[in-house]
Amino acid sequence: MKALPFFSVIVPTHKRARLLRRALQSIRSQASPVPFEVIVVSDVVDAATDAVCAEILTDTDIYVRRNGMPGPSESRNLALKLAKGSYLLFLDDDDAWHAGCLEQLYAQPAVKRGEPVYFNCSVVKERRHADGPEQLSEVGVDLAGCLTEGVFVKNQVHMSCFALPRPLLEGLAFDASMRAYEDWDFLLSVFSRQMPVHVPFLGSRIFEVDDESSDRRGSSKQANDYNAVLDYLYVYRRHAAPQPALKQQRVELLQACGLTLTQELL
């Protein structure tokens, strides 16, 4: 009988086989002291994605091609139902892990106690060409002290930097109706239950594209237009600010976007 995984790694994907290969190779190359599983969920039929998963995933992993609404929320929700690990991690298909991530994560006293944690990352700038990505730069980021109650005003830490105990996520789901910020919205639900603690090691590689070579389904323009303001309002109404000062910061952020509201509405 196979031992249950300690870590479940959830990877939603959408027709980005070349980048998915990089992500999965960074996971499967981990020297983990405990069993772990990878759950890849594709929201579209794609032969290249099938081939990458067939090559890299093992018989302890799960690959699902699902039907329904495209987008990472429904893919993550399905994976949450399938995950068997004590700890869950989310990795976007265009990001990756540094070597030793799982080994260092498992060694943390906070993880031994079953607490939610977040770890450091590096930010990689790249261009994405038809024949593959071109790395431009990479800078390490120490996230110690970066997660505060200010996260109820604006997101602070990338989703790929968290490791969350499965019992803490019981009953939670990603909101598939959101155009953006569904990961922030989900994390706020987690933080309302228990705030993660920082663990000091370099875990994630967050890849960013600043030019027109980006293959993201949303654009930077979309992320800053009126729809984004509506999504912020939606998140604010779902998650109350823990302090009056945070309500005022919400007011000021929306004012900077051209929307004037009172604290009572936020």
List keywords for this structure.
single chain, 266 residues, alpha/beta, 9 helices, 32% helix
- Helical/strand content category: alpha/beta
CATH architecture of the largest domain, please?
Alpha-Beta Complex
Q: Which word captures the global form?
A: globular
Q: Beta-sheet strand percentage? A: 15-25%
The percent of residues in helical segments reads 25-40%
* Helix and strand pattern: EHEHEHEEHHEEEHEHHH
Number of helices: 9
E-strand count: 9
CATH topology of the largest domain: Spore Coat Polysaccharide Biosynthesis Protein SpsA, Chain A
CATH class of the largest domain, named Alpha Beta
How would a textbook summarize the main sheet? 9 strands, mixed
Which consecutive residue ranges, at least 5 long each, have pLDDT under 50?
Answer: 218-223
First-residue to last-residue Cα separation: 52 Å
Q: Could you give me the name of the CATH homologous superfamily of the largest domain?
A: Spore Coat Polysaccharide Biosynthesis Protein SpsA, Chain A
Q: How many domains?
A: 2
Give the overall pLDDT as a whole number: 92
CA-atom Rg in angstroms? 18 Å
Structure overview:
The model is unreliable at 218-223 (pLDDT under 50). The chain is 32% helix and 24% strand. It folds into 2 domains: 7-215, Spore Coat Polysaccharide Biosynthesis Protein SpsA, Chain A, CATH 3.90.550; 218-266, no CATH class. It has helices at residues 17-28, 47-56, 72-82, 101-106, 109-112, 182-193, 220-224, 226-238, 244-256; strands spanning 7-13, 36-42, 62-65, 87-90, 96-97, 117-129, 132-141, 162-165, 197-208. Helix 1 (17-28) links the parallel strand 1 and strand 2. The longest helix has 13 residues, at 226-238. 32% of the residues are buried. It has 266 residues and is of the alpha/beta class. Strands 1, 2, 3, 4, 5, 6, 7, 8 and 9 form a 9-stranded mixed sheet that branches. It is built from 9 helices and 9 strands. The protein is globular, with a radius of gyration of 18 Å.
